[in-house]
Input
Amino acid sequence: MKLENYEVHLPSYSIGNTIYDKIGPVCESYGKTVLVIGGKLALEAAYDKIRAAVDKTNLTIIGKELFGEDCTYKTVEALRALQVYHEADMVFGVGGGKALDTVKCLCITDDKPVFTFPTIASNCAATTSVSIMYNDDGTFLKPHFFIRPAMHAFIDTEIIAKAPARYMWAGIGDTYAKYYEAKISSRDERLEHFTAVGVAVSEMCLQPLLEYGVKAYADHQKGLCTYDVEQVVLAIVVTTGIASIFLTKDCTPDYNSGLAHAVFYALTSYPVIEKRHLHGEVVGFGVLLALLVDRQEEEFEKIYKLNREIGLPVSLKEIEITEDEWEESMNRIPEMSDVAHYPYRVTKEMLRDAMDRLKERTGKDAYDTEK
Output
């Protein structure tokens, strides 16, 4: 068998409540001038702390810009047209998934050094080598893959702990999905080394959430940065990013997605999802259906219990999707790229059966509660 040549670039990160003190040692070798780009609320939460840390280094911040509204190619081009962007030696991306994905798409494409400063723990955008791109109307377009992630991620747990807890809540759903989708997508296959590593790492996307998730969410709601919160933040931001890089290397085949994400992307056709619900929230609901389709009853019960304990959705009503909209979505989900590499063909009948069984499970809970 011919050996393939390939390269893997893993994320570099720092974590802690005083981690911005590492900006100088990490970033100074990349130049002198810094442009900070982020979301409005993210910059309000983190910019002063970043600026205070930069003032102690040989770096100079020459601009601060809002990234825009959505991670679209139009937004990327608007930032690329800024003169201050071309004057900066490096860019600091600050915020959540859409802000960080926008800055990555801008800078990695141009081979400009970019550093990420996540202010919420909802996804792995700070550490992974993909940006999720949207159409101008807010609907999902496609993933945009890169050869490498950002140069370094500065994960300030103090800032994340003070952010709205609903972001970590949704991040939990997105993170345990990584494990189940990787395991199902790779089932019964002879895996390349990098894919096998990704599948093995993905187990750490589940276990810390089962162990620490409920306590971490309760602590985060109080604005506390406890050990439990840090373990969940690491799983969401770092472990998922590492697994993602191994699972999508060369993008063919893609073990990084699956039925849970197909459910989410199909439902983005309805504006209520983008306007009122978070990515991981809907993906976490999709995992329940994926496990029922896959006949993993014990695993379904684990995730159903976790979702109920922290309030992640277990019904269409909780994500404001009507029965008619779900019926329409079931026609699209089997054709989506997320389930193109699956150990079996997902059918509308499988989805309908899974939804019926989920409704039966939630109905039993409601009956027990009434008793």
